[in-house]
């Protein structure tokens, strides 16, 4: 009887149902966060890692990720790539790799990601950066023994930071 008096009531009920079950886009798609950013200054390869937030989705759901690479001021976009995955109900660590056409030691590179579920995009993650390496190599020293031989020492597992003109990379080996 009450519904008959207010013909708009079923529409309001449907609207409330949609609001309560779908929520806004921020509830559905949280802003992704970059977990780890790894730059290889020798090969100029970048690895981006992030958790997919799949535990918020009880059933399998396909999601598209967009990874944007920018560099220098005023933030020029140099890459915009998509990555597809399926949310499985668990928080899975995802990773994506990219090789820069410009050496990392030449300029700072910036990375951010966002996700899309259906037609809805999340907000972009916070911008993370890959700084250009220091001008002075870390934990590195050399002694000139003669005109043909130089003896160098550095901490294992750390980049020497040795780069030449035009992005030439110097590799050191142990004997």
Automatic annotation (TrEMBL):
Signal peptide (from-to): 1-25
Question: Which keywords belong to this entry?
Answer: Signal
Q: Which Gene3D superfamilies match?
A: Immunoglobulins
Domain (Leukemia inhibitory factor receptor D2): give its ranges.
Answer: 29-130
Q: Which domain of life is it from?
A: Eukaryota
* InterPro entries, per database record: FN3_sf, Ig-like_fold, LIFR_D2
**Protein name per its UniProtKB record:** Leukemia inhibitory factor receptor D2 domain-containing protein
Species of the source:
Phrynosoma platyrhinos (Desert horned lizard)
